Amino acid sequence: MPRWISSAGACSASGRGRPAACGAPSRPSRGALAAAALALAALLPPARAAPGAAGQQEPELRLVVQQAIGQAQCFTDKFDSAVWFTLMEPKLRRYVRDNAQRLEILQTVYCETHRPGAVQLPPGLVMAVLDVESRFDPWAVSNAGAVGLMQVMPFWPEQLGMRRYELTRIAANVHMGCAILRFYLERERQDVRRALERYNGSIGHRDYPDRVIVRWTTYWNGADDLGRGPIKPS
């Protein structure tokens, strides 16, 4: 059995309260722009961060994320990318009505998971993380202060010389989130469940990784063999 699922197997959400960092995010109206969302994040006290905040605070992550931002170019196989869009666009349409935003999410996820020179991420796994973390809402803010599609903590832009509003930008948020997830996958030797626990800051708790894996294997699957990535659902 692959390391990405424990011997107990994946299970659906238990109904118990999820960790604070992956709690259902607020969903501001389109009229409430980035200033309101980031103002809320700024009001949250950093000294008492919720579990999800701890998952992105390791010092060695800074260089990893900085490199991901600096190399944000995509060179993909045209056939594979066409298959990816064909499979995933109808699924994402259920969550994202805006055509341009939907295509940007798909392009960014595909490019980031197939980054040249880096360990490939299963694109379906990343889509599942976006689904569970924010339901594909770029304006989402968790009660731990995490922002955007992949719920990246607001201290990252300051460390990288960026502005906080960039966390609500699709490309910047996905670049940072994927860099963090890839870092934890490498640390955990491609054990997806443990990497997800670290990403969420909920080590030892099954709820978050179980929900991500269920979404990955039951809805966002079907295109992870593109590019022959090393981590695949069984």
What does this structure look like?
- Helix 5 runs parallel beside helix 8, helix 6 crosses helix 10 (207-218) and helix 9 (192-200) packs across helix 10.
- This protein has a single domain, classed as Orthogonal Bundle (Lysozyme).
- The chain contains 10 helices and no strands.
- It is mainly alpha-helical.
- Residues 1-53 have low confidence and may be disordered.
- The longest helix is centred in the C-terminal third of the chain and has 18 residues, at 170-187.
- It starts with 33 loop residues before the first helix and ends in a 16-residue tail after the last helix.
Q: What structural keywords apply?
A:
single chain; 234 residues; mainly alpha; Lysozyme; 47% helix; disordered N terminus
Summarize the SSE layout with pairings.
Blueprint: H1 34-43, H2 51-54, H3 61-70, H4 78-93, H5 99-113, H6 123-134, H7 155-159, H8 170-187, H9 192-200, H10 207-218
CATH topology: Lysozyme
Strand content: under 5%
Question: Structural class, judged by helices and strands?
Answer: mainly alpha
The name of the CATH architecture is Orthogonal Bundle
